[in-house]
Amino acid sequence: MLLNLSEPTPAAITVAFPETRNACSLCIQRELCLPLEIAPDDMARIDRLVAARRRLKRGQHIYRAGEPFKYIFVVRTGYFKTDVLTEDGRDQVTGFQMSGDILGLDGIGNEIHSCNAVALEDGELCPIPFAELEHLAGQIHPLQRHLHKILGREIVRDHDVMVLLGAMRAEERIAAFLLNLSQRFASRGYSPTDFHLRMTREEIGSYLGLQLETASRAFSHLQEEGIIAIHIKHVQILDLPRLHRAIGR
Amino acid sequence: MLLNLSEPTPAAITVAFPETRNACSLCIQRELCLPLEIAPDDMARIDRLVAARRRLKRGQHIYRAGEPFKYIFVVRTGYFKTDVLTEDGRDQVTGFQMSGDILGLDGIGNEIHSCNAVALEDGELCPIPFAELEHLAGQIHPLQRHLHKILGREIVRDHDVMVLLGAMRAEERIAAFLLNLSQRFASRGYSPTDFHLRMTREEIGSYLGLQLETASRAFSHLQEEGIIAIHIKHVQILDLPRLHRAIGR
DNA sequence: TTCTTGCCTTGACCTGAATCAAACGCCAAA
DNA sequence: TTTGGCGTTTGATTCAGGTCAAGGCAAGAA
Questions:
Q1: For a disulfide at A43, which of A25, A228, B184, B208, Cβ 3.0-4.6 Å?
Q2: Which class for B132: exposed (0-12), middle (13-18), buried (19 or more C-beta within 10 A)?
Q3: How far apart are CA A204 and CA A215, in angstroms?
Q4: Residues in chain A closer than 8 A to B158 (CB atoms)
């Protein structure tokens, strides 16, 4: 089973280029973000859409639950999380986002954000005014298709998390989590077997519906089995096939 | 906390009228489904979009995971569920749909369905060819907005389920489930405090990440507390405020 | 009517994860 | 260098929910 806990291929609409002004057409991640069939003229219109990039420091909020929804944000650099805080104080991480991923989709439904989004490390975002994106999508069909796919994949991703939370034991959840990160790093050109976790054990636990101690123990156990090596936030996957098998029990 | 486990207000795009041909403009649920600001001309175009209604018998599949995605379906009558079956035999119900709800959104992301959809009782659906809907949405702006809201709300709904699965104990999950049904019945003009469950304990359990015995015990316990009365599939909510409070522990 | 079948409830017991607690290691500030 | 604090690991214990098992009830078939 290959869980798609988060977009393995970046689903970004666009990201801007640092030196020039915000030019999606020049962006390094362009081919990952936008369908190739977009005509140069249309591309220029998309370029104009993207607002000035926003820099964030570790710990800063991008938006909070309850705030009016205006932008979606493409992650250019850095690492982010989204979480829901319930009235009775429960806190659930709903996702971790890295370069090319999109933040803010939770606001579309009711024009109000339903999550908090926080930077886990310093980073940069490209804000895209959603109303204008919608308008442009009405005129550029491949852009509309693309937007729908982004929303559709988010729904599938959430279903996968539901399976994880509803039907897997602790160690399986951790294995699925690591495999998902592995894929996402791989698709961004980083090592799929050697990477750093940007989130704490508590955040991992919250995302996976586990206590931080349980998450920690699951990591330790996978290490004892020789499947991974983990030291604090540095993870090495030693036996990818066995990590896969750790999910099917 | 009011969990929005599924659309409390029907999010349908359209449903057809039984006697005439498929005419959304005449449908009893029209005002629930489509934004009011749609012009009569546009309305006629939407009417033409909806394919012939499809009748389903209890137990029949609407679509299965892996099948190509072509339609989304508006529930006209009946009761449906969607579930994911993993390679290793795990089965997780991802949602229950009633009149006005939409089936098939799981196919948008990859043009392949990622869930199975099954009728829990006899019912009728209005299939809408998604490619054509997308095309029309490019021309009718309120329709496009509406479509995006449907997708956006589905994402928020899934986040709420994630909170439920990740952070609530068994009895809280059951209470949240009942409250959600209550709201949805209420918004359709049925009693919010007296209704029939259409799904088995096993399906409820699967949706909520519980074993069927645990689900059954939670129902029994809420009954012992005098909060609900339940006999097999017939539920009466006796004390709505206490049922609410049963969630915050 | 009786039989069959599927679904639900309840009890007894077991286990995986939560909880409580202590200690360690790393980093940053003093 | 020391000190303090945060995040992590690990151990001991508890408990919610899973598992196994038995029995009941309702509806449809024979």
A1: A25
A2: middle
A3: 7
A4: 155, 158-159, 161-162
SS3 content of chain B, % helix, strand, coil (to 5): 40, 20, 40
Q: Can you tell me the distance from the alpha carbon of B30 to that of A196, in angstroms, rounded to the nearest whole number?
A: 52
**CA separation for the pair B114, B62 (Å, rounded):** 13
A152 pLDDT higher than 50: yes
Q: What is the pLDDT of residue B143?
A: 92
What pLDDT was estimated at residue B16?
44
d(CA A58, CA A61): 9
The amino acid that residue A204 corresponds to is I
DSSP A227: S
pLDDT at B5 over 70: no
Comparing CB atoms, the residue among B88, B114, B206 nearest residue A156 is: B114
Give the C-alpha separation, B4 to A165, whole Å: 18
CB contact under 8 A, B159 and A109: no
Instruction: Please report residues of B whose CB lies closer than 8 A to that of A135.
Output: 141
Strands (E), chain A: 54-56, 61-63, 71-85, 91-97, 102-103, 116-129, 194-196, 228-231, 234-237
Cα–chain center distance at A2? 17
Cα–Cα distance for residue pair A188/A79, rounded to 1 Å: 13
Tell me the chain B residues in contact with residue A145 when contact means C-beta distances shorter than 8 Å.
134
Q: What is the DSSP string of B109-165?
A: TTTB--SEEEESSSEEEEEEEHHHHHHHHHH-HHHHHHHHHHHHHHHHHHHHHHHHH
Task: State the DSSP H helix or E strand holding residue B61, giving kind and residue range, or none if neither.
Answer: strand B61-63
Distances (CA, A) of B9 to A12, B66, B114, B182: 30, 29, 25, 12
How many Å apart are CA B31 and CA B50, to the nearest integer?
Answer: 17
pTM above 0.85, yes or no: yes
